[in-house]
Amino acid sequence: MIRRTIFTIAVVALLALAAVVVVDLLRPAPPLALAQQAAQLESELRCPDCQGLSVAESHTTSAAAIRDEVARQLQAGQTPDQVRAFFVARYGEWILLEPSSPWFWIPIGVIVLGAAGFVAWLRAGRARSTPIPAATDTVDADAARQRIRDEVEALDA
Amino acid sequence: MLGTGGHVAIVVGLATSVFAAFAFVAGGRRRDPTLLASARRAMYLTFALAAVASAVMITALLTHDFSILYVARNNATTTPPFFSVISLWAALEGSILFWTLLLTGYAALVLYRYRDRHAALMPWAGATLALIAIFFFAVMIWPGNPFIRTTPVGTEGAGPNALLQNHPFMGLHPPLLYLGYTGMAVPFAFGMAALITRRTDEEWLAIVRRWTIVPWIFLTLGITAGAWWSYEVLGWGGYWAWDPVENAALLPWLTATAFIHSSMVAERRGALKIWSSALILATFVLTIVGTFLTRSGVVASVHSFTQSAIGPWFLAAVILSLGGGLTLLVWRLPDLGDRERPAATVSRESAFLFNNVLFLGITFAVLFGTLLPLIVELFNGGTISVGAPWFNRVNAPIFLALVFLMGVGPALPWGGASWGSIQERFGIPILSGIAAVVVALAAGLRDPAPVATIGLAVFVAVIMGDELVRGTRSRQRSRQEAAPLALVRLATRNRRRYGGYAVHAGILVMAVAIAISATQGSQASATLAPGGSLSVRGYTLTYTDLTTAPLADDPRVVETRASISYTGPQSGTLATALRDYPNSDTLIATPAVRSSLGEDLYVTLIGYDAGSQQATIRVFVNPGVVWIWLGGGIVGLGALFAIWPDRRRAMATVPAEEPAAAPSAPVEA
Amino acid sequence: MANGSVWLRLRWLIVPVVLVPVVAVLFIGFGRDPSVIPSPLIGKPMPPFELATLDGASLRSEDLAGKPLVVNFWASWCPPCAEEHPVLLDLAQRYGDQVTIVGILYNDDAEGAARFLTRYGDGGWVDLLDPTGTTAVDFGVTGPPETFFVDASGVVRGKQIGPVTSDLVAAQLAAMGVQVAAQ
């Protein structure tokens, strides 16, 4: 039927899109201009006397001083990693708004485990209890239900 | 004089709620309707007393009665009436009073509404609500007394916190949020009642779901209003920073939303009682945590919490609610197990339950990110920051997965989907989503987040649209109604389903608006002399002059305004200012926001030099922000529609009456 | 739940297993002051600097070696700096022979500094200008007032964010071997 053909086309298109995305991700990123590197670093460095804002977002004097220093360092040829290390050496790890990688994975890990456990729980239940007969043709079933509902209401009226 | 009256009202309120608690328990055990009636009346009286105490405080604020310490600290003779009234929730003591007012209000409403129904549950729900009221009245008598006197009485007060009197939204956000928080006590009370009486069947679930959605609406609107306030007032151009206070408000919303979805599965299958109870308990405990964290209303003062008088009481509240609820749940655990697994692997049930996994995942991530710095510091000496970039990176993909489920879940049938039905339903939506992605990429959008969001939003919208069209057509055929009438009748006959669709539509609008505004904004800043201009994204702003003058309605505040004219997609003039409040060390920025459906022009004055008349301004062009607030409104209206009582259905169901004096099995304590 | 009675008994463990960590985290987490941030500079040599004094002369950090040093970052527009100024004046008077005090202006200029000193008193120690803010960043300063305690060999021994008190100063100096009179 036509809808099933459309579905097949849709899946193919989805796979094609996924392939394009993967290829694009694998391509080495073009080097960022200095201004963009600065903007990126400014969004990663924490404003020392604000509540959790980055130096890009804050307009306090300490944020301005850090932005100036970032610009100066990048102009002098430092890499973004070196600039980050510079600030960490002076302020501590705390100056980076995003903690270094290992912590990042814990919530993701928990969610993946939760999802896997959930699927396992569903399947285990299926094995134990009598399987519920799956609806074969839901389009008609929904319309049928609606018809029944309407007819029942018509009886009330 | 006035203050004494308020204090007396609170003391009497403690007494009446203690009486109510005893009367509910005794009346419940003895099945005595007279005792229960007097318990209810005691709770109505408790609400009246809370109202009296609140009225006293508001009067004291309006009349600038500095004999009361709270008024002396949060009010001044120059404070305008509107801000005097909203100072009720300016600081801890007033906030607790306001919380108590709303809690007893909910309690009175629920007890009145169900006075002739659910005879087994009501005594215990009433007792739980009374116990919560007792706790908060006790807080208002001991550590957080709002009516403490000052001697000697000053002639002037400190005035409200600068950030609180900067914007009228301070009159909107806390009440909405608190209506959300306090409302969560109701499902908690019914949850406890169901566990105590072992009546964990559909009756309990239907009540609890309705009474979770009502505060959920307020919580959604309250959080949205908070983001809007933050955007309009704080001047950093954003609306959500994953701040501990913001996170504390979001956590109960996440668990409540999870519950609303899993309860639909629980209702259908008569299952998931443990899970439902656990979510209700978690939601209430999180609202307690959130209430105490946001006590100051504006800034997260997590500083030296246990050294303040309120700290131990807060801890006690958490221990009592979490410990009590958990003990009850564990005690009844043997009765609550599921006989069968409620879902096939691919079905509406599993989609709804999987969304719970994701919502709880976000809850865990937010808790993790908020608490991690504290834990690291304990073990390490040094500390780390977990800021917005981390939260966005972790939560954005999960939210996108939730958007995907929003489309898939309602489209799958209950009980299980066959491969054929999946092919029928999802072909066109997937293609539409891909087409939207292609269009977005062709239009120049390169950021993965907004592109993915747009694709998923179109996918979900097409599924919902398909459902609407099919339902309307089927109704047209069977009833010979014109399409618009058929649609309206369809929606009003299936409020829950179509209200749900409206809520999801609102979420889609917010999701796309957030994705675009967060990634496609531009900003620039410059120091300008009068006449100088600055260009950002199609706008040209020209700075004209600087004026310094006291505020018209509060002369203690001196405001320096920079007047700016602008041209571009919007044109006109605006003034952005820095205000010097007497009780604040730093100048408070008052940004100017010019909103249109397309984008916001947002201008902040960062600094100025009175001598040279130079002004440093910062300009943001934020696309699509207005749609976030509109989307939030759609969500609220959709949820309201979903729970709006259907008169036809109400006539059809007979309330489950239980003869009050029936000699049935003895109630187990 | 149709499982054995062992599970039935063990289920009560859920209560303490959940409750204890939650309470512990709240108790500990909210008991500390988030504005006290330990400095990575402690135990390391002081960052070198070369800055101009208010009169225009130049001062290098190397010139200050040999005696314990108190480096105070301040500004004329900062109210807590005015609050702590008497403590510093007292410090100069009592221990001026044993300890060198140096002030570094944070985002401020000579006129502002002069106004402040006229109003609150000039203790006689050198004040330096840091127009680019580089030195403040080198020290990891988050905002004025911030004070660093450096020992005679040039190693940073302590840092105070916010105004200093006499007790705090006395404790820090004693830790560096300065003879501290009984308060």
List the helices and strands and how they pair.
The complex is a heterotrimer of chains A (157), B (669) and C (183).
Chain A: H1 2-26, H2 34-44, H3 61-75, H4 80-91, H5 105-128, H6 138-156
Helix pairs in contact in A: 2-3
Chain B: H1 2-30, H2 33-62, H3 69-74, H4 81-86, H5 92-113, H6 122-141, H7 173-183, H8 185-197, H9 202-233, H10 244-269, H11 273-293, H12 310-336, H13 348-380, H14 388-411, H15 419-442, H16 448-479, H17 483-493, H18 495-519, E1 522-528, E2 533-536, E3 539-550, E4 558-567, E5 572-580, E6 588-590, E7 592-595, E8 599-609, E9 614-623, H19 625-643, H20 647-652
Antiparallel strand pairs in B: 1-9, 2-3, 3-4, 4-5, 5-6, 7-8, 8-9
Helix pairs in contact in B: 1-2, 1-6, 2-5, 5-6, 5-7, 6-8, 7-9, 8-9, 8-11, 9-10, 9-19, 10-11, 10-13, 11-12, 13-14, 14-16, 15-16, 16-17, 16-18, 17-18, 18-19
Chain C: H1 5-10, H2 14-29, E1 50-53, E2 58-60, E3 69-74, H3 79-95, E4 100-106, H4 110-120, E5 126-130, H5 134-139, E6 146-150, E7 156-161, H6 166-175
Parallel strand pairs in C: 3-4, 4-5
Antiparallel strand pairs in C: 1-2, 1-5, 3-6, 6-7
Rg result of chain A: 28 Å
> For the record, what is the CATH homologous superfamily label of the largest domain in chain A?
Cytochrome C biogenesis protein
* pLDDT < 50 runs, ≥5 residues of chain A: none
What fraction strand of chain A?
under 5%
Can you write the helix and strand succession of chain A as a string?
HHHHHH
Average pLDDT confidence of chain A is 80
Specify the helix fraction band of chain C. Answer: 25-40%
Give a quick account of the main beta sheet of chain A: strands, pairing sense, barrel closure: none
Q: How many H/I helical runs of chain C?
A: 6
Give the structural class of chain C: alpha/beta
Structural class by helix and strand composition of chain A = mainly alpha
Total beta strands of chain A: 0
Distance between the termini of chain A: 39 Å
* Oligomer designation: heterotrimer
**Annotated CATH architecture of the largest domain in chain C:** 3-Layer(aba) Sandwich
Domain unit count of chain C:
2
Helix content class of chain A: 55-70%
Strand element count of chain C: 7
